[in-house]
Amino acid sequence: MAVQLMTIGDSFAEGRGDPLPDGTFRGWVPQLADALGIPADAVVNLGSYGATTQDVVDHQLARALSADAPLYGVTVGGNDLVSRDFDAQRFRYNLRHILTGLTLRGARVFTITWPDIPGKLPGLSDDKRRALRARFAEANDYMTKLTAELGVLAYDMVDTPVTRDPAMWAPDGMHPSPEGHRTIAAGIAALLG
């Protein structure tokens, strides 16, 4: 069966925080597919733990493009943003490269803005938390402008009240809980209409 939904990105796409008994993860991707009526065998999820925007460019984008899917989801960037060697120029270039490559195919493309991960991470000093929040805010400003320019749909993870609900998040503060993944799937399904 031809691929109808292709997702690329990091552990947010992979489904971390929503474990299955066999040690894999369910996450929002299959739940979104269910909501859209896309059969499981027409979904490919390349999301992988720890992936950065550079990893997606180097290891996922070509495979995603070769699938020629009508719908693509991209959730990546959080690992870049919390990295000690964050390079804003490379980060922005990679995001533009990924999203442009997918939209040039004429597919529908969606992504997310980043929630307040710095507010959830344990063990940060006040100064480090402030600095990371500023970095996330700049990234979200860039993503908002980029998605508007390219016609990419963006699910808002910044100003949606439910994203501030502790029940939405796994104990690590980085990944959605099972309830969070369900909520994200429903939100993206509504965004896609």
Structural commentary:
The model has no long low-confidence stretch (mean pLDDT 95). The protein has 193 residues and is an alpha/beta fold. The protein has a 5-stranded parallel sheet, sandwiched between helices. It is built from 8 helices and 5 strands, in the order E-H-H-E-H-E-H-H-E-H-H-E-H. Helix 2 runs parallel beside helix 8 (178-192), helix 3 (53-67) packs parallel to helix 5 and helix 5 (88-103) runs parallel beside helix 7. The protein has a single domain (5-192), classed as SGNH hydrolase (Rossmann fold, 3-Layer(aba) Sandwich), CATH 3.40.50.1110. The radius of gyration is 16 Å and the shape is globular. This is Lysophospholipase L1-like esterase. Pfam families: Lipase_GDSL_2. InterPro entries: GDSL_Rv0518-like (IPR053140), SGNH_hydro (IPR013830), SGNH_hydro_sf (IPR036514). Residues 8-182 form the SGNH hydrolase-type esterase domain.
- By DSSP (H or I, 4+ residues per run), the number of helices equals 8
From N to C, what is the helix and strand string? EHHEHEHHEHHEH
- Rg measurement, Å: 16 Å
The CATH top-level class label? Alpha Beta
Structural class: alpha/beta
> pLDDT average, as an integer?
95
